Amino acid sequence: MATEHLTQGQRIARARHRKGWDQATLAEKIGRSVSWLSKVENGRMPLDRMSVVGQLAEVLGVEVAELTGQPYRHESADLDSGHAATPALRLALQQATMPGGAALLGARQPRTLDELEANVKLAEQLRQDARFSALGDVLPGIINDLTLITSDSSADQDRAEALMLRACHMARVSSNLLGHHDLGWTAVQRELVAAQRVGSPELVAAASWDLCGVWLHEAQLDPAKNAALSALDQIEPHVGADDTLKAMWGALHLRAAVAYSRLWDQREAEGHLEEARHVAESLPRDGNAFQTQFNRVNTTIHAVEVSMELGRPRDVITRAEHVEIAEIASSERQAHYWTCTAAGYHMNRKDNEAVDALLRADRIAPQHVRNRPMVRNIVRDLRDSGRLLRQRELLNLAKAMRLP
Questions:
Q1: Which pTM does this prediction carry?
Q2: What is residue 2's predicted lDDT score, i.e. its pLDDT?
Q3: SS (HEC) of the chain
């Protein structure tokens, strides 16, 4: 069978066979029953939590992408979600991170910093809208121009480096969401360099937030947790009346909450959630420091995600009902909320409600939704269960995702 068409369960079975283990051996190592593992491998039980996928990847000694099958390519250019821009983005990031990379771009005149700042702001809106194809069209050129400017000693280096960090943040997010995790690493490495060169606590916090994001996507949970805690310690002396630093402080607590929830540590996860809630109460309702969307609504979205990762489906639905989702100006965050809510409904065996939530998420941000492994697993399971009120729409979604 072609690797592209393997289900996640088949990928787990392949990795298990490579280790020379039977199902009983793997089940014992992850603290599950043989019946549970058999259902997962046979496609009769979806893996709807990244915490579980991460545990399996760690025990099997493989990268998460080997079990999820990312990146996923789609047949239409509109839904290919920016994959087509990956070669150009990869080259731009390589030249941005290598010594002397600017010399490889030739003797051309980059855009001014004022022009680039305006272009970065437009690109950031594409990132929040999860329009990755459109973002992929403009981001490599922005990074190339900033590579030229940051190599020019006569330029405003601090401003250029800050813009480079913001551009590489977008490269990191889109790369991770599309499954190009190695490219996400390249992007965050350039962010860390920018933060170090400028030395401002805000940029250090922003780069650290993205570092946590890379590790969460790769299910490296202890490094993600430790990076969040280390960054909190590092910026704590600087947190005062400045709203940006307060927002980054809160955003890092949300990173820690997600990491602890995937480690199934409820006490620590809820503790960091509470810290984030407390900070958010003193900040603007539309806060979006460094594209973190740190605000009161996003803390409630994270609470839904934390309950989902902890395997507490009733709490997922209870918390979801209290999220004022229309108040957050981010299609990506809205779609994330609806997919987490769908997972909660599915865990509660409320499949029609799960389908409604998934279809709603897909209407909001299809390029985001159709590239998420968790969503694809749930859609496949719902498709195969049958007897749903919106079965035809679900089948069309599964077809658009090219699910095996």
A1: 0.90
A2: 44
A3: CCHHHCCHHHHHHHHHHHHCCCHHHHHHHCCCCHHHHHHHHCCCCCCCCHHHHHHHHHHHCCCHHHHHCCCCCCCCCCCCCCHHHHHHHHHHHHHHHCCCHHHHHCCCCCCCHHHHHHHHHHHHHHHHCCCHHHHHHHHHHHHHHHHHHHCCCCCCHHHHHHHHHHHHHHHHHHHHHHCCHHHHHHHHHHHHHHHHHHCCHHHHHHHHHHHHHHHHHCCCHHHHHHHHHHHHHHHHHHCCCCHHHHHHHHHHHHHHHHHHHHCCCHHHHHHHHHHHHHHHCCCCCCCCHHHCCCCHHHHHHHHHHHHHHCCCHHHHHHHHCCCCHHHCCCHHHHHHHHHHHHHHHHHCCCHHHHHHHHHHHHHHCHHHHCCCHHHHHHHHHHHHHCCCCCHHHHHHHHHHCCCC
